[in-house]
From TrEMBL:
Keyword Cell cycle set for record: yes
The organism's place on the tree of life at top rank: Bacteria
InterPro entries: Cell_div_FtsQ/DivIB_C, FtsQ, POTRA, POTRA_FtsQ_type
Protein name: Cell division septal protein
Length: 332
């Protein structure tokens, strides 16, 4: 039994090998019939073309970029933590520089001492006076000085409406100021003297000896008790002066001598050349100013070589609705 088993196995191997050889012979016959030559059958390893090499490199780079992409993702995940850490460091550094020991350390360095101070915008005031008033010295340090505090001190000056402070590193200080522009003088009685009024109705500096007095004078406010009436009176005076400053030939600002207020707040105007009263009453200043402008244009006309306005005793702008009363002297 064992011998037949071995013989049978050998027969199977022999038959398979023979069958394989027959299949190869069929392939050989087929190649011969179709005209293939032995030289056409390349049995050696073929070299890769340039395109194939490029494709291989591209695939390699793709795999590499996938690896780099994963690394970038990891970096992105770590980025918020780094940003938070950097922010904390900057905040801590800013604290120590402005409030902590670093400020004290650098505050004593001569390199950061103020060497140049420039103040612009002075008309009535002067730079030396303002430096002294606001305690601005060359001993200040660029790191320790406080622009807000300097601005506040300067704006407490009676003539300074606005101040701007700018540090010019490493050792310069640039200060620009805006002064109030007076439009009138407000009389506060014999004891309190005069105070300047600007175009917005704001009272500022007290008139000192030798200062400009060539402005219209506002009187009677010291007799007005109610603060709201006083505020309304100042607003009315400011409006009248603003309209007069538009260089109207018949009613220029320089021709206004006095603006008087009664205790009730009624407005009365006096001109320089013709000091008769012009009663405005209360309210509607702009409307009444326009009416007065037209009335004065007629009154300045000459009749028989003499201007009509020379015989006027007073003018009432509050006579009736849309009517003006002009009263002449008996001699006229």
């Amino acid at each position: 039994m064992k011998k037949r088993s071995v013989f049978a196995n050998l027969r199977v191997l022999f038959v398979r090998k023979k069958k394989k050889d027959s299949e190869m012979s069929v392939l050989s016959r087929k190649i011969t019939q179709q005209g293939y030559q032995a030289k056409d059958l390349n049995t050696t390893a073929r070299r890769k073309s340039v395109r194939e090499k490029w494709q291989t490199r591209k695939e390699g780079r793709g795999r590499q970029s996938m690896g780099l992409g994963a690394e970038k993702d990891n970096r992105r995940k770590r980025a918020p933590f780094k940003l938070l850490l950097l922010t904390g460091i900057l905040v801590a550094a800013g604290y120590f520089l402005t409030l902590g020991s670093w400020r004290t350390l650098f505050g004593d360095l001569l390199y950061f001492r103020v060497h140049e101070i420039e103040i612009s915008g002075c008309v009535v005031t002067n730079a030396k006076e303002l430096r002294k008033y606001a305690d601005i010295t060359y001993e200040m340090n660029m790191l320790t000085l406080q622009p807000g505090a300097i601005k506040e001190r300067l704006e407490r000056h009676p003539w300074v409406e606005q101040a701007k402070i700018r540090r010019i590193w490493p050792d310069g200080l640039l200060i620009s100021i805006k002064e109030y522009r007076p439009q009138a003088l407000v009389a506060h009685g014999e004891e309190n003297g005069f105070q300047y009024l600007d175009g917005r109705g704001v009272l500022f500096a007290t008139v000192a000896s030798g200062q400009d007095l060539d402005f219209p004078v506002i009187t009677g406010l010291d007799l007005v008790e109610a603060e709201i009436v006083k505020k309304q009176s100042l607003d009315a005076a400011s409006t009248f002066l603003r309209l007069a400053s538009q260089n109207n030939p018949n009613l220029p600002a320089q021709n206004i001598s006095e603006i008087h207020f009664t205790p009730e707040g009624e407005l009365i105007v006096y001109l320089v050349e013709h000091p008769f009263p012009i009663y405005f009453g209360k309210g509607e200043v702009e409307k009444k100013f326009s009416q007065l402008h037209r009335v004065l244009k007629v009154l300045y006309e000459k009749k028989k070589g003499k201007a009509i306005i020379e015989d006027v005793a007073f003018i009432r702008m509050d006579y009736q609705e849309d009517k003006v009363l002009v009263v002449r002297n008996h001699s006229g």
